[in-house]
Specification:
By secondary structure, the chain is of the alpha+beta class. It is built from 13 helices and ten strands. The chain has two domains: 108 residues, Phosphorylase Kinase, domain 1, CATH 3.30.200; 230 residues, Aminoglycoside 3'-phosphotransferase, Chain: A, domain 2, CATH 3.90.1200. The strands form three sheets. The protein has a five-stranded antiparallel β-sheet, sandwiched between helices. A three-stranded antiparallel β-sheet has the order 6-8-9, with helices on one face. Strands 7-10 form a two-stranded antiparallel ribbon.
Length: 355
């Protein structure tokens, strides 16, 4: 799976390289690659090349026709190797993982590339908020979470439980955005919301630290299950896939598993849809992790942790306000996120967590 040769530009892709990596991965056992078509595009954090492969007649093996090559430079704000390990190590021994098949990958201090299945013909971003899609995403997240659940499993992969230092770093990165954000929304929110935001920073970080001292419920989290990173079947059948685990250096990467569910529903879903579907999705998530053998994490604890993690959705729009350019140009993104997170804060009576 790991070639050792880093592809830093789609122009470096040729027939010989594709033939070699597909044979070494087991995707092509007999025959050869005849040629390919390649289409390039740029995303926020990567160069993307979609590759349509043509094989010699009589070739044998899975022979994936549609591949996606993702190329990332190791910029300072991303945690190096997290996505590389996501596709090449962390879940390779999980049966039928909700992660696209990886055929080749390489990483160095310059960056990394991932060659994987291109699922765009069969799957699409999870833009439609329905119970079926919510349950599909909850099942996929539960599969990943259960696989890396608990201190022993985390240590086996070189990960550690979060500690006070991790939490302090996380809060220090976010908190400078609070005052400028409050100034930016001065005429948009009322006194109750302003007071609640101050209350959050006065009390919530200590509750995160307190919760981190109990190891039950922790795993490697995806960290960004936004609609674009949750791929649902176009025809409504089959499983959901999760892509793009790219945490920031200040992110809580080992964290409460249910934080991914909270981020998905609180941060991105319309508040009325969240209210309607929230309980059903959480119950399915709990059912799924129990099915995987997680028996020391009961429903009451899950709901408590969900409420604690729901508050973290407030930190995302605040973080976006640290820099003036983002605060001013991206208000159309972060202000609706703030509204959804504040609505959930009151719906879930989150302030009771520290009363």
């Amino acid at each position: 799976m790991q070639s050792g040769r880093l592809i830093s530009d789609p122009k470096q892709v040729d027939v010989a390289w594709l033939d070699d990596v597909l044979k070494r991965s087991g995707a092509l056992s007999v025959g050869q690659v005849n040629g390919f078509d390649l289409t390039c595009s740029e995303s926020v954090n990567a160069s993307i090349a979609r590759i349509h492969v043509d094989y010699e007649s009589g070739s044998v093996g899975p022979q994936p026709r549609f591949l996606l090559l993702k190329i990332c430079k190791n910029e300072a704000w991303f945690l190096r190797d997290s996505e590389f390990h996501y596709y090449t190590r962390d879940y390779v021994d999980l049966k039928d993982p909700p992660v696209p098949t990886c055929y080749d990958a390489a990483s160095s201090y310059a960056g990394y590339h991932i060659l994987m299945d291109d699922l765009s013909a069969t799957h699409q971003p999870n833009a439609s908020v329905t119970l079926k899609n919510g349950i599909g995403a909850a099942d996929a997240l539960a599969d990943l979470h259960a696989h890396m659940w608990g201190p022993e499993r985390l240590r086996a992969f070189g990960y550690a439980l979060p500690d006070q230092r991790n939490i302090d770093r996380y809060i220090r990165h976010v908190e400078p955005g609070l005052s400028p954000m409050l100034a930016a929304v001065q005429g948009d929110i009322g006194v109750e919301w302003r007071k609640a935001l101050g209350d959050v920073f006065a009390n919530h970080p200590a509750k995160l630290a307190e919760r981190s001292r109990d190891p039950v419920g922790f795993t490697i989290v995806h960290g960004d299950p936004n609609p674009g990173n949750i791929l649902t079947p176009r025809d409504g059948t089959g499983r959901v896939f999760l892509v793009d685990r790219q945490p920031f250096r200040w992110s809580l990467t080992t964290w409460l598993a249910v934080s991914d569910i909270a981020y998905m529903m609180v941060h991105w879903w319309d508040s009325n849809a969240r209210r309607t579907l929230e309980d059903s999705v959480l119950r399915e998530y709990h059912r799924r992790i129990v099915q995987h053998g997680i028996t020391d994490y009961d429903w009451v604890q899950l709901v408590h942790d969900y409420r604690l993690c729901a508050v973290q959705s407030l930190y995302v729009p605040i973080m976006r306000c640290v820099l003036k350019e983002s605060r001013e140009k991206m208000k159309w993104v972060w202000f609706p996120q703030l509204q959804k997170a504040m609505t959930a804060f009151f719906d879930l009576r989150c302030s009771e967590l520290w009363r």
